Structure formats: structure tokens, C-alpha cells
Amino acid sequence: MENDEVLVKVEGLSKKFCKDLKTSLWYGIKDLISGVKGNKNERVLRPKEFWAVKDVNFELKRGECLGLIGHNGAGKSTLLKILNGLIKPDSGQVTIKGRVGALIELGAGFNPILSGRENIYNNGAILGFSRKEIDDKLEEIIDFAEIREFIDMPVQNYSSGMKVRLGFAVAAQMEPDVLIIDEVLAVGDVGFKIKCYNKISEMTSKCAVIFVSHSMPQIARVCTDCILLNRGVGEYFEGDVGRAIEAYDKSFFKEESTINVISDYFSVEEIFINGNSMLKSNSRIKLSFGKQLLVNSKLRFLNDFKLSKVQFSLVITDKSQRAVAIAENEFDTKLKLIDNVINFNVNIQELNLTSNIYSLTLNVIGRTVNNTRIVLGRVLYFSELEVIGKKQESYAPVILNSKWG
Amino acid sequence: METRIYKKENSLSFLKILKESLNDVFGARFLARQLAERDIKAQYRQSYLGVIWVFIMPITTAIVWIFLSSSGTVQLSDTGISYPVYVFSGTLIWSIFKEALTMPTASTNGARGLLSKINFPKEALILSGIYKMIFNSVFKIGLLFILMLIYKVNFSLTMLLFPVGLVVLILLGVAVGLILTPFSMLYKDIGKVINLVMSFFMYVTPVVYAVPSNGLMKTFMELNPLTYVIGITRDMLFNGTFTYLNIYILIVILCLPVFMLGLVWYRLSIPVIVERLSA
Predict the structure, then answer these.
(1) SS3 string of chain B?
(2) Where the protein is mainly located, per its record (chain B) (predicted)?
(3) I need a labelling partner for A382 at 20 to 30 A (CA). Which of A253, A340, B220, B259 fits?
(4) Cβ count near A193 (within 10 Å)
(5) Which residues, 6 or more positions from A396, have their beta carbon under 8 angstroms from its beta carbon?
(6) Within a domain: A10
(7) ∠ CA(B15), CA(A16), CA(A56), 5° rounding?
């Protein structure tokens, strides 16, 4: 099969929803009738309606994986429903080639009274398998779910984890060309999760995948492209998942300030990296491998602030927001609060990170007088750090100083 | 490779949608059977009386009317056959029609959770509803035949037409049900109105008594198309008078196009329903 064939093509896709139930139902009746008449008019917003998805465009080939990210209510589920053919778009078009499989709800069609074995058939039938296919795969499903002992027990006596296992085991038998995955795998124990991820990556290698998740490390690991949805409008990051994730994280902060401080206790007066102020816009710092990283900062605490000790930790995260390195001081009395201001500096002599783009975050932790630990605040992603000069083929970000004999 | 296009519908072809719909009905036989089996099994596994519940409704209605008639509370015109058999066959045919009418809404409503999550042929819901109805009806009809033996009703050749009559009955009920389903999915009022109308209609249809020979009731009953459907279906069982056979035949001829219209309408309206119920 050709590998660069476009399996999913989405052009100018829009969908509107109504905010009010009664109005929504009435529009429903109107849509039913205009639907039969073959409404050719362009659809515009009627009173109390809004665009849940507005002008989304993308293409997806076999072997590619599109991440769909955005806040709650950004339009992700609506988009998935249109792609899955459950609801019709209000304008634009979706073209999908091949079998579509959806991992959106596991265990659809289960009846709690019936046994696991019977429910495999129910679930399988809804997912589009024939009786013969299920007969053939029955043993494999039971083994995958690892619940042979309980397979003839009513599903209502299963634990939620067992239900998910069974549901996933059936769904995993699909051989789709286009796979739609919503965050279904948030349940189950670690062992089974790993099994699921392995199965999914086995499936995804053969098809085009659309993946919705709030977990950025997952998105970074799996996806090749990304769409960041914000109030229905999609920003398409083709081949640049890292930038999409950054935009997603930044989108949580309303002002366009260059640094994002989450704290009820202090504000940032100044922060420098290698002498460059990070309060100005475009705070990307370029650094060669193994060179020095120097951070100094001035934090102003609230007037009534009384703490005995403060700890700072400087966290270096990669594009998927996974922490790769940390530098922190011991709870130290040397860093004194003078007139509600703390000045500190950190010197990291050799930054042994491989070439990549990292972000810097500062966490501030305090101890109260009776020694309870509290988080005073975080300065999020205040700088982008581009390390150059050390290409690394493996994915490990840190090079350890080592001697070999 | 199969290609699907989802867009705002702007060119409709009745025949094309009908073809797709019938294809899905055919393709979803296994799913429909599986769903029907699931519901029937689950229903009876959690019950001691099990299938007996199928009989209880028509039997209680029949008993009430046998009592009313034999105690002289109500005076009824001659039915031509033994009254208990008349009443039981009437309530049976009526209950099958009523079930057919409400089934599409009930099935669709029961699958609400699925509809907004998974793309499967929706026609399977209707087909599985029909399967379930047939399952229930078989027991009721079995009981009817036992009654007919007990009351020594003459068996006649027209009885062979009875299955055909039932198919027409079910098709008609489901067709009207399909047309009403989108509305009753959106507004709960519709279902309540249907129930109300049906309980009124039972008394202007020869269910528990025959069409009187004169009077206001006769006019009402003759205006009601169900009179012909229920009446002729029963006449098939008892080789009755087959009055107004021509009107019945007209209804039979209309029944199939209306059913197809129902299928197309249902298929078109499902996305709208899903959108409005899961938004």
C-alpha cells in the first residue's frame, strides 16, 4: 500500500452549537425539516449559537499521528464526533478513506447482567466485527484482558479496571486505517496501561491516528503533527509538536507577559540568564554544550510574609514538559529576606545537555516557622534555552560525566 | 478502499439514501441479532416469571372485558365468535401494533449513550427491535392458539394469511414509529401524546368489541384506519366477514412506501438528534 496516501482530509470544517436547551431542541426540529428539503444556504449563527469548531483544516497520511490539544470545551470532542461521522458539519468537508476505528468509549454495549464472554460478542458486534471474527479472536481477547478466571461472571461484578481491560481487549482487535483515540486509557493499573500503549503503537504504525489527550508527554511521544484548538479555532502545527505544546501551556496565561508567575506570595522583579534579562520579550537563550548557565533573580515578597527558610529549585524541562534536570539549594539561611526582597543566584558550571530546546522553570518552596513545607509559587517557562553543539541520536537529554577504562 | 465524505447535506437523493439504509439493514443483521439477544437474555435472567410477563398484559385486559361483558355491565354487539377468544385476539393484535409503533423511539432512546460515542449502523436498532417483537409475539400467538383450541374455534385456510397480516401490522406500526421518532427524541411531550392518543384509539378500534351496526361509535370507528387493519388481521384468523377489504388492501399497498420513507427520514435525522442530545 502506498505510504503517502492521504487518509484523512479536513477542509474548512465548522460546527455550531446552541447554548440554550429549549432553543437547541427547537433548532433541532427546524434542522430536521430543512435537512429534508436539502438546505443549500450557507449556515450562519442563529441567536444563542456559537461556533464549537471553526474552520479547521488538516491532512493526515498513513503512519502519521495528529495530536488534538486544547482546554476543556475547546471543541476537541465535537471535532472527533464529526470525524467519526456521528454528527454532520455545518460547513466544510471531511474525507476519510478506509476503515475507521474509534477508541473513544471502551466496552460499549456491555450489559451488566450478562457474562464477560457474552459481552465480548455485544461489544464486538457494535464495533463492527462479524460473529466469525469474534469466534476466531475470542481466546486472544480473553488472554489479552487477563481475566480468564472471571470470563463467565456477570460484568456487573467486575471491577472498573476489569471492565476496561475487557473493553480494550475487544477494541484492540480492530484493524483500522484511521484510528481515533480519545483519552480512554486513563484507567487501569500500570501493567495493563503499558500493555495498552504497546498495542496502540502496534496499531498506529499501520494507520493514520487522531489522538486527543491532555497529557503533553503522551502527545510529544506519540504525535507527528498537532492541532491546538482554542474556542473552536484550530492552529495547525505541522511537524512541530513541541511548539504546539508550548503554545498550549502558554495559552493558560491570559496576559501576554513574557514570564508566567503563579504565586500568592511574591512577584518577580528581575530575572537574568547569563546576564540577559528575561522580563523582556523573546527570551530565548542560546548556549553551547558544556558551557556555564548563570541565573540570578530578585523576588519581592508580600509585606506580611514570615518564613524561616526558602528553597529554590531550577527545573529544566524538555519540549514535552518532562523535567530532565534540576538544580536546587539546601534550605539555607544564607538567602535572606531583606525588606521583603530576596536576591539569589545560581551557577551551573557545565550544562551537559544535548542539543535541543529546553524550558526553565523556577519553583519556590518555603518552610514555615513550625517547619511545614509549603509551595510558595512557580515561575513557569520563563526562558527558552537552546542548547547547541551536541547532537545526540538516542533520546537521553543528559550526558553524564563518565570515565571509561 | 472505502471513502466516506461527511459534509453539510446539500444534494439529497431519496433512492440513494434508501439504498444505503437497506444496505445497512442487511449488513447489520448480526449486530441486530446480538442486541436483541442481549436484551432478551438480560431481561429474563433477572426475572423469575420470565416470559410469562409477555402474556400478563393481554390476559388482564381480556379478563377485564370478559368480566364487563358477562356481568352485563356493558352491552356489546355480536362478535361472531366466542367472546374470550375475540377479546384476547384483539388485545394481542393491538398490543403488537402498539409495540411496533413505540419500538423505534424506545430502541433509539435505549441506545442514546452509544449513538453519541460510536458509529454503527443505526438501522440495527430498528431491526433488533423487530426481532424482540417477533420473539414476544410468538409466545402470545402460541397462547392464542391454545385458547382457540379450548374454545373450539374452527380452523380455516384464511388463517395461513395471518402471518402476512402480522407483517403488514408491524411494518405499518414501525413506519409510523420511525417518522415520529426524531420528534419524540427531541421532545418528551410527543411520547406522552402518543400514549394518550393510543389509549383513546383502542376504543374506536374493534379491539375488545366489534363495530356496532349503527350509531355515533360506528361513524367514529369507520373513520379510523386502524379499524380496517386490526379488523381484517383478525378476520384472517377466524375467517371473518372481511368487510372493507378494499380499504385494507389500499393500506397494504401504502404500507411499504411509507416504511421506506420512515427509514430514509430516520437515517437523515439521526445526526441531528445526536447533535442536539449530546451537545
Answers:
(1) CCEEEEECCCCCCHHHHHHHHHHHHHHCHHHHHHHHHHHHHHHHHCCCCCCHHHHHHHHHHHHHHHHHHHCCCCCCCCCCCCHHHHHHHHHHHHHHHHHHHHHHHHHHHHCHHHHCCCCCCCHHHHHHHHHHHHHHHHHHHHHHHHHHHHCCCCCCHHHHHHHHHHHHHHHHHHHHHHHHHHHHHHCHHHHHHHHHHHHHHHHHCCCCCCCCCCCHHHHHHHHCHHHHHHHHHHHHHHCCCCCCHHHHHHHHHHHHHHHHHHHHHHHHHHHHHHHHHHC
(2) membrane
(3) A340
(4) 15
(5) A354
(6) no
(7) 90
> Whole domain around residue A316: which residue ranges?
260-388
- Which residues 1-40 of A have a C-beta within 8 angstroms of B? 17-18, 24-25, 27-29, 31-32, 35-36, 38-40
CA distances from A149 to A191, A402, B55, B165 (A): 18, 50, 39, 49
d(CA A81, CA B272): 12
pLDDT digits 0-9 by tens, B210-234: 888 888 988 999 899 999 999 999 9
**CA-nearest residue of chain A to B2?**
A98
A303-336 pLDDT per residue, tens: 776 666 788 889 998 877 788 999 988 776 677 7
> Which residues of A fall within a CB distance of 8 Å from B187?
25
In this structure, is residue A339 part of a structural domain?
A: yes
Predicted ipTM of the assembly: 0.87
How many structural domains is chain A composed of? 1
Do residue B118 and residue A105 have CB atoms under 8 angstroms apart? yes
Q: Please say whether the beta carbons of A101 and A173 come within 8 A.
A: no
**Residue B9 to residues A13, A35, A90: CA-CA distances in angstroms?**
14, 7, 9
Per-residue b or e along A85-116, where b marks 16 or more CB atoms closer than 10 Å to that residue's CB: bbbbbbbbebbbbbebbbbbbbbbbbbebbbb
User: What percentage of residues in chain A have a pLDDT greater than 70?
Assistant: 92
A249's grid cell: 501551556
| Best CA proximity match to B170, nearest among B216, B138, B209 | B138
Is residue A113 domain-resident?
Answer: no
How is residue A142 written as a grid cell? 480473553
- Best to test chain B binding among A9, A62, A113, A130 (most B CBs inside 10 Å): A113
CATH number of A348's domain: 2.70.50.60
The count of C-alpha atoms lying within 13 angstroms of the C-alpha of A381, restricted to the half-sphere facing its C-beta, is 24
Distance from CA of A218 to the nearest CA of B (A): 23
pLDDT digits (tens, 9 = 90+) for A249-287: 777 654 445 567 888 888 888 888 888 888 765 567 888
Query: In chain A, positions 50-89, which contact chain B (CB-CB < 8 Å)?
Result: 52, 81-89
What dihedral angle (degrees, nearest 10) is formed by the CA atoms of A16, A73, A178, B276? -40
User: Cα(first)–Cα(last) distance of chain A, in Å?
Assistant: 50
Cell of B276: 442536539
**Does B27 contact A at CB distance below 8 Å?**
no
Cell (9 digits) for A321: 514538559
8 A C-beta contact, residue A6 and residue A61? yes
What is the C-alpha to C-alpha distance for residues A356 and A281, in angstroms, rounded to an integer? 21
